[in-house]
Each structure stands twice: as structure tokens, then as C-alpha cells.
Specification:
Chain lengths: 314, 254
């Protein structure tokens, strides 16, 4: 497809003996905001550093807009903007000076320089602080300067490493809004360990654990999957488990004690109806019926902790 | 591209009080030495006029001034070069350069050019002092030019060594101390050769050749040897290439 912005093939990275990234492959398309999730030390930052060209991969291929990052670093890097965990700003420069410098580093022609700087400032809400020293700005504004630097050359891909860490709730909302706006024109990769953030801004989500991709899906289809396939029920006079399992649509159940069960079902609506009617017939005394949504958090915990326990057992 | 990096480097230097302090303190101390030399020259002048081919103002004022300046700059240079790469790595700004479409060679050369420009401004300020004597006397311009060239080459060498040691660490203080150590070592390395009993053997010649001082002093007397130029040239190129390789290696290994 022509709108493939990033194509990663089997990316590996070693730090001495540590195998930090173990064969990651994925694609990013135009207009996608990809959330990169993972516990601390999972290899998120390392992957992002490799995609932005700061670190060289030990093995694998990175294509940015069809250009190989390792063969043609100059052309490929012209297509990416990168915000590291710590915004790479010089505190002794003013916002204008700093952005002009970054624009020059990105080969923006002299005639377009002022426009590019003004545009980036406007998009990141920095117009008011152009003449102030970066060192005197708050953390939130420094973060915005960092983002402005990453989008100043209008790159195809914007890579943001934990863009909302250390910001107050209002700033987080603003930055999220900015990321959502960016997603309309650019491909965005965003790493974070804040789950609601992914649900708020991302169109796709990937979970990385111990250097491997363990989950990768679009937010939409994930939401559909997450649509209630669990029901919590409680009875005053609970039947035996086998009676419940005989009901149509119930795959299996967990006994939660005191007459409460978690039912794993195929279709929550018809099964819920069936349970209500059966309970009335059999006089089980239904007192609770709650559809339970599996959240991203559950998926995340399931995927990242099961691997850990496996590892510990081995 | 190199020029933009150099310009940023120079600008940041002058935005911090460090550059101004160094320029001010250097100028004050050297002015003191300069006046002391002028005073000595006046005291000696009656005797000098009698001697045929006696040393002139350039030999008695400019040369000692430059040689004092060399020693002072040896101590100051590590302070200027320590931040070049170490500081950028520590504050994370190196990532901006690494993720930009710029090659390692451009990064290193840009940083080197930036610091060199600053050091040349320093040489210019120092040279103004002997040049001010033109108002009252005649100077041997050839000798003076050789002295200035010597200063520039010396400082360019200091900066190259400092740049390399700054690329090895993320701690500016460690970069400064190791640069200082290396420069002092190269300054006094011939002392080991000259105090030994067996002067004139191969190792003595080697130590003599390695000494920065030995290659700088002829220029103060107005002698420009091609071997001295080659020494400084090789010195600078070696350390710049080492810095580029170091940055490349860190991207791969780290």
C-alpha cells in the first residue's frame, strides 16, 4: 500500500548481553495514531530510538515512507520527527531561536524558515512565548517546544516518547488534543504506560513486553471484542454450576462465592434475557446482573503478567 | 549544516557567563603580564641600543606574552571544551542532533568549528595588546604573525583533544579533568627526555617530538617549520576522527 508510512521488519537490539528488543515487526499507515504500551523496561524507548535513528538496530529493517533508514539515513530522517522522553531543548535559547535552529537542522529552506517556525508555534500554542527563554518555561511548555521541534519540518511520521509524563491534568488534556490533531495529518507513534491515554487518543494499540509484541490491534476492533462477553450474576438460592452451564450461550464460569458467578458468554443480550427468565422459572432469586466490560487494563495486565509468571516458573 | 551547529554552539557560549568571564579574566591577567614586559623593555632599552642585532620589542614583549598565554589557555581550554558533547548527552539535547538529518561528521565538525571560533576570538584579543605598540614603535610583523599562528594552532589542538575526551563521557567535569591531564602530559612530556642521562637516543627523540611545547616555541621566535605544522595538523585530525568514530560507536553499541 502506498500510504504505509513506517514498515518495521524483525527489529532486534542488544545492549551488551541484554536482548532488549526481540524481533518486532509492524506497520504504520497515514492517519493512524499508534499507541505503544508496555511496562517499564519493556523496550518501548529503545524501539522508538531505533525508529527515529538515534540508536542503530542490531538487526532488522526500518522503512520510513519507503526509504531505508539504515541505507539513506539523511532522506529517511527528513521524514520523521522525534520527541525523546526528555525534551531536547537548550534552556539558554529562546523558543524562537531554538525552533529556528531545529528548522535549519532539518534542511528547511531559508525562505520558508519563518513560516515553518510560526506554523509550529501556532500548532503547539507557543505563539505567546516565542521570545521567552526555554529554561524559564514550565515543564508543560517545554514539552510543547519539544513537540514543536518534532513537527516543524512537517514530517510524515511523528514519534513521541511518553509525551505527557510530568504534566498537570490540564496540560495532559491539551497535549492529547494536540496529538489527536497531529494524527489527522501525520502518522503518530506514541509510547506511554498510561492506559487511559491510549484509549483517549490512539486509533491503534500495541503492547510490548520483554522486547516482544504481545498484542496488536486497532482500537475499534478491540472495543468490539471488549464489548461485554462477561456477565456478573448473583442469586439468593444459587443453582449448581452444571445447571447454569446447560443454558445456551454460556461457555464457562467462575465461582465468585456467596452465590455470585462470572459468566463468560457469547452474546450478552440474549443470554442475559435467558438467565432472567430461567431464574424466574426455577426460583433461583436473581439479585444481580451486571455486564462486565473487559478493559484495556485487563488485557494489559493479562498479557504482561502472565509472561512474567511463566518466566519465573521456568 | 556544520555552520548552523557551530553558530548555535558559539551563541550558547556567549549566552552563558562562562565565556565572558573567561575572556575578561584572561584579558586582565595577560594585560598585567604585558605591562610588566613593557616595563622590562624600557629598563633594558639603553643597553640594547648599544648591541648590534639586539632583540626588539617583538622578541621581548610579544613572545613572552604569547608563551604566558599558552600556559593560561592550557588551563582554560578544558573548561571550554568539556561541555561540547558531554553536556548535550547529559541534558538529552544530543537526541535532537541524532534524530536530525545530519551526519556524525557534521555534528563533530560543527561543534569543533564553534569552539575554535571562540578560541580565535580570544587569540585576537590577546594579539591586540602587542599590536597596540604600533602606536609608539615598529614591530616585526612577520614574527608577530608567526606567534599568532602558533597560538591558533596550539588552541586548535587543545580543542580537538578536549572535544574527543568530551565525547567519551556524559560528565563534563570528568571531561575537563581528563583533558587537563592529557594536555599537561603532552606539555611536559619532553621533560622526561631532557633530564635523562642518555639524551639523544630514540625514545628521547620520540618524547621530544610528542611535546606540544617543543612545536610551539619555534613559532614564537618566528620560525615556522613544516614539521611543526604537520604535527599540529595530525594532532587535530587524529582527535577529530576519533570523536566521530566514538559517536558512531555509541550509536551502535551503547
Amino acid at each position: 500500500m502506498s500510504d504505509t508510512l513506517i514498515k518495521i521488519e524483525n527489529l532486534h537490539r542488544y545492549y551488551a548481553d541484554t536482548h532488549a528488543v526481540k524481533g518486532i515487526s509492524f506497520e504504520l499507515h497515514q492517519g493512524q495514531v499508534l499507541g505503544f504500551l508496555g511496562p517499564n523496561g519493556a523496550g518501548k524507548s529503545t524501539s522508538m530510538q531505533m525508529i527515529s535513528g538515534v540508536l542503530a538496530p542490531s538487526a532488522g529493517r526500518i522503512l520510513i515512507n519507503g526509504i531505508d533508514l539504515l541505507d539513506n539515513p539523511r532522506e529517511a530522517k527528513n521524514q520523521t520527527g522525534y520527541l525523546p522522553e526528555k525534551p531536547p531543548v537548550y534552556p539558554e535559547l529562546t523558543v524562537d531561536e531554538y525552533l529556528t535552529y531545529s528548522a535549519r537542522l532539518r534542511n528547511i529552506h531559508k525562505s520558508k524558515l519563518t513560516n515553518a517556525v510560526d506554523d509550529a508555534k501556532q500548532r503547539c500554542g507557543l505563539t505567546q512565548v516565542g521570545r521567552r527563554l526555554i529554561g524559564n518555561l514550565s515543564k508543560g511548555y517545554q514539552q510543547r517546544v519539544g513537540i514543536a521541534q518534532a513537527i516543524i519540518h512537517n514530517p510524515a511520521v511523528v514519534i513521541l516518547d511518553e509525551p505527557t509524563v510530568g504534566l498537570d491534568p490540564i496540560q495532559i488534556r491539551e497535549i492529547r488534543q494536540l496529538i489527536a490533531d497531529l494524527g489527522k495529518q501525520h502518522g503518530v507513534i506514541l509510547s506511554t504506560h498510561i492506559l487511559p491515554e491510549v484509549q483517549a487518543v490512539c486509533s491503534h494499540v500495541q503492547i510490548i513486553n520483554q522486547g516482544q509484541l504481545v498484542f496488536s490491534d486497532s482500537m475499534e476492533s478491540m472495543n468490539q471484542q471488549l464489548q461485554c462477553n462477561q456477565l456478573i450474576v448473583a442469586f439468593i438460592r444459587p443453582p449448581e454450576e452444571k445447571f447454569l452451564l446447560e443454558l445456551k450461550g454460556i461457555n464457562h464460569l467462575d465461582d465468585l462465592q456467596n452465590g455470585r458467578f462470572r459468566l463468560h458468554v457469547e452474546n450478552d443480550h440474549s443470554t442475559a434475557e435467558l438467565i432472567v427468565s430461567t431464574s424466574a422459572e426455577q426460583n433461583w432469586g436473581l439479585i444481580e446482573l451486571t455486564p462486565e466490560k473487559q478493559t484495556l487494563e485487563q488485557i494489559f495486565v493479562e498479557l504482561t503478567s502472565s509472561d512474567l509468571s511463566k518466566e519465573n516458573a521456568a | 549544516m556544520i555552520w548552523h551547529i557551530a553558530w548555535r554552539e558559539l551563541r550558547s557560549l556567549f549566552l552563558s557567563p562562562l565565556a565572558w568571564t573567561i575572556l575578561g579574566v584572561m584579558q586582565f591577567i595577560l594585560a598585567w603580564i604585558f605591562f610588566a614586559q613593557v616595563e622590562t623593555f624600557f629598563a633594558l632599552q639603553p643597553q640594547l641600543t648599544v648591541i648590534d642585532g639586539a632583540p626588539g620589542a617583538t622578541d621581548l614583549i610579544a613572545a613572552p606574552l604569547f608563551s604566558s598565554a599558552s600556559v593560561l589557555l592550557l588551563m582554560i581550554c578544558p573548561l571550554m571544551t568539556m561541555r561540547l558533547i558531554a553536556e548535550e548527552r547529559r541534558s538529552g539535547t544530543l537526541n535532537l542532533l541524532l534524530s536530525s538529518p545530519v551526519s556524525m561528521t557534521e555534528i563533530v565538525l560543527g561543534k569543533y568549528l564553534g569552539i575554535i571560533l571562540f578560541l580565535f576570538i580570544l587569540v585576537l584579543l590577546i594579539s591586540l595588546m602587542p599590536l597596540s605598540l604600533l602606536m609608539g614603535t615598529e614591530l616585526d610583523m612577520g614574527k608577530l604573525a608567526a606567534g599568532i599562528l602558533g597560538q591558533m594552532l596550539l588552541l586548535a589542538s587543545f580543542a580537538a583533544a578536549g572535544l574527543y575526551l568530551s565525547s567519551l563521557t556524559d560528565n563534563p567535569v570528568i571531561a575537563a579533568i581528563s583533558t587537563f591531564g592529557l594536555l599537561i602530559m603532552l606539555w611536559i612530556i619532553d621533560a622526561a627526555a631532557n633530564t635523562g642521562v642518555n639524551t639523544g637516543n630514540q625514545s628521547t627523540q620520540f618524547f621530544n617530538y610528542m611535546s606540544l611545547l617543543k612545536h610551539n616555541t619555534p613559532m614564537l621566535r618566528g620560525i615556522i617549520n613544516s614539521s611543526d605544522l604537520a604535527y599540529f595538523g595530525l594532532f587535530i585530525i587524529t582527535f577529530i576522527v576519533l570523536s566521530i568514530r566514538q559517536l558512531d560507536a555509541q550509536r551502535l553499541q551503547k
